[in-house]
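Q: I have 210 residues here and want to know how they pack in 3D. Can you give me a structure?
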Amino acid sequence: MRSCKNWSDRLAGWLLAACLCLLGPAAWAGSIDIRNPQLLPGEEGYTLSADFRIDFNPRLEEAVTKGVTLYFVLDFELERPRWYWVDEKVVSRSQTWRLSYHALTRQYRLSTGTLHQSFASLEEALQMLSRVRRWLVIEGPLKPGDSYQAALRLRLDISQLPKPFQVSALASRDWNLNSDWQQWKFVVPAPEPETAPLPATPAAPPQESR
């Protein structure tokens, strides 16, 4: 019975993929642009904040509403340039979000790890996905004045799609939703000097009563 059920699920997946492929060519390929990436010092190290402009195409919207879960991966790398050898990779971090649609509740869900949030529309879910705030990417202190090369990208991970859709994704640009690696120079800032407390104002001497 289990083998019959697995075959039924596999057949349903193939049929859904075939239906999406028969929708005709998409009007445009999707795109992701990265805006204003920043590394800022925090209590435990350095955190990353960035904004993204995510341009979905009709094929991906159709896939989500038909029950296909999309996996978005945010990759961050930090390298130390070396003139005498290849650059040293200091940090490599990744974070994954799952975008899905629940037909019973008619809501879109965006999940990462054990956390999830529901939205009434796809636009609201994408708006949340397009903002990353205070993601801890570098643990511990760095030497002030040291120079690094930081790089960031956001991509749709087609390797986590159901098998039928992986075949379709390899043959169609409609599933190609990635940003280019955006690189920028990061110089570790010097710590802010501590402000010395102001001296206490001496109390005025009591006046003698007449």
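Q: Anything worth noting?
A: The beta strands are 31-41, 45-55, 70-80, 88-102, 107-112, 115-119, 131-139, 147-156, 182-187. The mean pLDDT is 82.
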